[in-house]
Amino acid sequence: MNRSAIVIGAGIVGLATARALSLRGFKVSVFERNERAVGASIRNFGMVWPIGQPNGQLFERAMLSRSIWEQICTEAGIWYDEVGSLHIAGSDDELEVMDGYVALNSHYRDCTLLTPEETLTKSPGVNPKNLKGALWSPSEMIVEARVAIGKIAEYLTGKFGVTFHWNTAISSVEGGKVSSGKQTWEADEVFICSGAEFETLYPELFRAQAITKCKLQMMRIESQANNWRIGPALCGSLSMIHYPGFHSVPALENLRNRYETEYPEYLKWGIHVMAAQNHTGEITIGDSHEYGLVHDPFDKDFINHLILKYLKTFSSFNENKVVQTWHGIYPKMTNGQTELIIPAEDCVTIINGLGGNGMTLSFGLCEQVIGSMFDQAYK
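RESULT FIELD:
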């Protein structure tokens, strides 16, 4: 007889957990407090971003996630674009960091330093002014998160028979029994994948963790006329300060020191600027990073202006009207850990704390976590 599992949360971590459990024979039910996923899983670039991960376990996990994304998108008819990425250098010290990245990583992953001419050939969306070159990686892919997350839920229902309980907020968990008001459900295993909402279910456990919350601000530029495409996802060099995949490059420290003098407001608000284009031609841009357990619900207009100002230093689009602005909030570990996997009680596991890496790492992480827990039982 198949074992049963309950997953709380229908964002990317919950979906990835439901998939991994279903593959191992579990009868899975997913509970989501809203009528659809509306949290951080749909409020992002839609980037699957291996280049940002350091060599070793995290890069391999990112590539595993990428392969799962590709499989699901192909089977479910979800749009995706294997466009790769360009980090744009507008100065010699930025180019030096990119050169160092290639020197350290070219034996482990596909990456190349491009000349200005080669860069402009890759993307018509690059600003040629002051262009020194770019770091090219073909590994990154784009999905439209607002559409893909809902489509994956439909896919899991159709392929594995996963049951989704929408508009059902779980108010308590006791072992394998979960409750929403007076309604209760039971399963052999329960997985809490609802982001920072596990604070409500296990407040003492939440307070005991090295965890905070991150607010990010993002925008979307209108569809580009005549099907004009930027090609790869584009990144300013501030992104190299943000992503740990670059932190082992010796020249990065000198670049950081310059940025502390020239871009203090950007570093204060955790701003690094990227651009990704979806299937309709819209370009998603951002973002910022504010940390704390409670956030102002109102966005800061000056942050959006800083993002747009820096965007113009490395990109040039045909259409530039901002048609949407928003913010997202996700849990983030403060102790350097890349995720939080802990037993809350017997048969209850919390999967949380991926920070801004949910789209990139969730499928790989949950495949590994669920595999380590149950693969022996299903061999």
